[in-house]
Amino acid sequence: MNKKITVVGAGNVGATAAQRIAEKELADVVLVDILEGVPQGKVLDMTQAAPVELYHSHLKGTQKYEDTAGSDVVIITAGLPRKPGMSRDDLLLTNAKIVKSVSQEIVRYSPETILIIVSNPLDAMCHVAYEASGLPSSRVIGMAGILDTARLRAFIAMELDVAISNVNACVLGGHGDTMVPLPSYCTVAGIPLADLVSNEQIEALVERTRKGGAEIVSLLKTGSAYYAPSAAAVEMAESIIKDQKKILPCAAFLEGQYGINNLFVGIPVKLGKNGVESIMELKLTTDESDSLKKSAASVQNLLDALNKLDY
Known about the structure:
Oligomer: single chain
Largest sheet: 6 strands, parallel
Mean pLDDT: 95
Structural class: alpha/beta
CATH architecture of the domain at 4-142: 3-Layer(aba) Sandwich
Strand content: 15-25%
C-alpha cells in the first residue's frame, strides 16, 4: 500500500509541494483547499504532467477532509501569505484560526499522522497545531530552519562563486528577524567560512538571510516565496516517509534543551518515521545562546498575544 501525504492549502507553496511529492514518487497526494475547483484543477494539471515526467503517484484534489483519511504526513500551508509591508506576526490571529481548524479536522481522520507546519508565523502556528491536534509533540514539526539555512547556503555560494553542494550552514531560532544564523558552523568544502571571507561579509550574509523572505516579498509585490519553502517541507516529509533519519534544522518542542521550555523553536533534530526522534544540542557560545533565548522570547511574546485573543 502506498504512503499518503496530504497537503492543506492549494496556493503556491502547497501546490508546489504537492508537485514535488508526486515527481519524487514519495507517496500518493491529497491536495485540500476550501476554494471550490482550485485543488481539483491543479491536481488535474499535475496528473497531465505525469506522462511527460513519468511519475506514478496518485493525486486527488478535494474540499473534503474525509479524503485525507489515513495520511502518514500532513503538510499545512493554509493561511494568508505575506504582502509588502507585512511582518509574519501580522498574520497571527487569522492564521491561528485557520491552523486550529485544519489541525482538528486532520486528526479526526488521521489520528496517527505527523504534522509539518508551514503557515506563518511559523513557531506560533506549531504551538496552535500542537494544542488543537492533541498529537505528541514529536509529531508536530515546523518547517523553518531548513529554509533559513538554505537561504544562508545560497547566499554564501553566491558570494564565493562556489558549488552550492560545497556549502554547509546552520540557522537556529524562530522563523523571523530574530533567527540565529551560526557562522561558526558554516563551512565550504570543510573550510570554515571565517577563513574565506571577512567579518563584515559574514555579517552581511547573516543580515540578508534574516531578511531573505522579506526580500522576495518586496520583489514579487503580490506574493511571497514558494519554491524554497515547498522544497524544505518536502525534504522533511521525505525523511519521515523513508525513515531517513536526517538531521535537519526544524521547529521542535523544547522541554529544557538549550535552556528553553514549552516552546517550538528551530534547532537541529533527527527526523524519521516517528517524527522528531531526537533533538541535537549544539555547543553554543555565550552570544549565540543569548541570541537563541532572545529568539525564543520573541516566540513566547506571540503566544502571549495569542492567548489574550479568542480564536
